[in-house]
């Protein structure tokens, strides 16, 4: 064969192989790369803290990681024995770990605490709420999973575990998984005016896609949807809440006090009253944990909820990867496509803190990828729970920083697949709920080439 024909043949083969690669890249289905391995890139203190602030962080971390005991006020009803139990992955301050530690509770608390069908070794940590009371009025509150009855330190306490099986059979139970608290101090210091300015930015583009969103406040003149699940900030305040799945909690101190009482049953200066006041089940004075104003050693020790708040306030934001997964070029393309299709209209890439007594929190960029507003998410995600100004199908735009190492997605942890979580944002309207505000954006995402979708998934897993 003449040399020129050989050269043409080689070029033709190269073109075919090249086209085959392009076609393979185009038509291969985009897949979630899975949790990013390696260094957690989270769990450490904010850069720029003073020596004293770093000490507060370390003391808070130790208290946050401590396991509580019955004689310290645990229970009578509880979900976990410590903050770090639920906020443990990929570092202290995170969310559900790969192995669910709650499966061990029935062994430690024998007697009236039995295993639960929705708490599995490989599943997420879950908090259970009932939608309605027996008389049909709204409930919405947390119903604790476990009781201290049967524990060696709880002699005489015989309260029974809730009948979750019966409530599940009625479809009356919804679940929530723990929200990570990395960078929480930065979120706390974003001014209301910054949130509201971002809400009105790009208004026409948002409107064209069906995106609204609003701040969750404690209304001054009553609740618009009933009295279930009231937010725990003062109604005379009226400022924007920003923590929790429905942005129902105003501040980190409130978040700490509420969690200590609701999740562990431990009362404090912020929440004095036991949720279950059964006399035979009280093994510590009320409130269970307070600042020691008259200590034996002469050293005043602040209360645990203050320690929890300081730990979260001084906890650094997660550090994203610039190369994993997929390489820096794919991640960069994914970041651009994320904005192009409209994801960034709700998952705002950056807000900014205001002035602060803590220099490390003052005028800082907050790369949280959230507008901190609540949005209608349609029937597919609706949980029929009302909290403050957030209705039964409304949820806060979840901050996406740290997403790369998260194991479970959506408010109830229903999936471990990021691609499935994106599709779950889309649902049409029903007689009870309007359509999801994310429909237009998900439609745009679905129209992308598979390679572009993969870039977006790589970008999200790089966070």
List keywords for this structure.
6% strand, two-stranded antiparallel ribbon, single chain, globular, 463 residues, 30% helix, mainly alpha
Structural account:
Residues 6-13, 15-25 and 220-229 have low confidence and may be disordered. The chain has a two-stranded antiparallel sheet. Strands 2-4 form a two-stranded antiparallel sheet. A two-stranded antiparallel sheet has the order 5-6. The protein is mainly alpha-helical and 463 residues long. The relative contact order is 0.17. Helix 2 (51-65) crosses helix 10, helix 9 packs across helix 10 (304-313) and helix 11 (328-340) crosses helix 14 (450-462). It is globular and about 65 Å long. The protein has helices at 3-27, 51-65, 83-86, 105-108, 164-169, 184-188, 192-200, 203-208, 252-264, 304-313, 328-340, 418-424, 439-446, 450-462, and strands at 77-78, 127-130, 146-147, 173-176, 216-217, 240-241, 351-352, 365-366, 374-376, 394-396. The termini are far apart.
List the helices and strands and how they pair.
Layout: H1 3-27, H2 51-65, E1 77-78, H3 83-86, H4 105-108, E2 127-130, E3 146-147, H5 164-169, E4 173-176, H6 184-188, H7 192-200, H8 203-208, E5 216-217, E6 240-241, H9 252-264, H10 304-313, H11 328-340, E7 351-352, E8 365-366, E9 374-376, E10 394-396, H12 418-424, H13 439-446, H14 450-462
Helix pairs in contact: 2-10, 9-10, 11-14
């Amino acid at each position: 064969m003449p040399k020129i024909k050989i050269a043409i043949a080689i070029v033709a083969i190269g073109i075919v192989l090249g086209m085959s690669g392009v076609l393979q890249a185009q038509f291969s289905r985009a897949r979630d790369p899975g949790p990013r391995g390696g260094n957690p890139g989270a769990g450490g203190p904010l850069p720029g803290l003073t020596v004293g602030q770093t000490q507060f962080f370390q003391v808070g971390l130790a208290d946050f990681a401590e396991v509580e005991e019955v004689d310290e006020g645990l229970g009578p009803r509880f979900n976990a024995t410590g903050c770090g139990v639920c906020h443990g992955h990929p570092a202290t301050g995170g969310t559900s770990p790969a192995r669910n530690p709650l499966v061990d509770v029935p062994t430690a608390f024998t007697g009236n605490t039995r295993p639960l069908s929705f708490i599995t070794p490989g599943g997420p940590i879950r908090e259970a709420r009932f939608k309605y009371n027996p008389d049909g009025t709204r409930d919405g509150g947390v119903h604790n999973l476990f009781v201290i009855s049967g524990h060696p330190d709880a002699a005489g306490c015989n309260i029974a575990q809730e009948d979750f099986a019966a409530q599940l059979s009625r479809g009356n139970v919804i679940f929530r998984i723990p929200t990570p608290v990395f960078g929480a101090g930065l979120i706390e210091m974003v001014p209301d005016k910054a949130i509201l300015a971002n809400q009105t930015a790009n208004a026409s583009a948002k409107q064209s896609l069906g995106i609204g969103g609003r701040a969750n406040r404690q209304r001054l003149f009553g609740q618009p949807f009933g009295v279930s699940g009231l937010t725990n900030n003062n109604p005379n305040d009226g400022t924007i809440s920003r923590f929790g799945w429905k942005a129902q909690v105003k501040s980190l101190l409130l978040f700490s006090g509420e969690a200590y009482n609701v999740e562990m049953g431990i009362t404090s200066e912020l929440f004095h009253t036991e949720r279950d006041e059964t006399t035979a089940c009280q093994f510590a004075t009320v409130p269970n944990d307070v600042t020691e104003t008259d200590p034996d050693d002469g050293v005043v020790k602040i209360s645990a909820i203050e320690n929890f708040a300081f730990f979260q306030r001084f906890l650094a934001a997660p550090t994203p990867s610039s190369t994993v997964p997929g390489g820096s070029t794919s991640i960069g393309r994914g970041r651009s496509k994320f904005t192009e299709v409209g994801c960034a209209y709700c998952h705002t890439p950056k807000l900014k803190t205001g002035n602060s007594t803590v220099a490390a929190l003052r005028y800082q960029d907050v790369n949280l990828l959230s507008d901190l507003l609540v949005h209608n998410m349609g029937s597919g995600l609706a949980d029929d729970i009302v909290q403050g100004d957030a209705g039964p199908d409304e949820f806060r735009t979840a901050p996406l920083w740290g997403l790369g190492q998260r194991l479970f997605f959506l408010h109830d942890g229903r999936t471990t697949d990021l691609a499935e979580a994106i599709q779950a944002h889309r649902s049409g309207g029903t007689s009870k709920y309007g359509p999801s505000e994310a429909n237009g954006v998900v439609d745009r995402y679905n129209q992308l080439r598979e390679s572009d979708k993969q870039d977006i998934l790589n970008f999200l897993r790089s966070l």
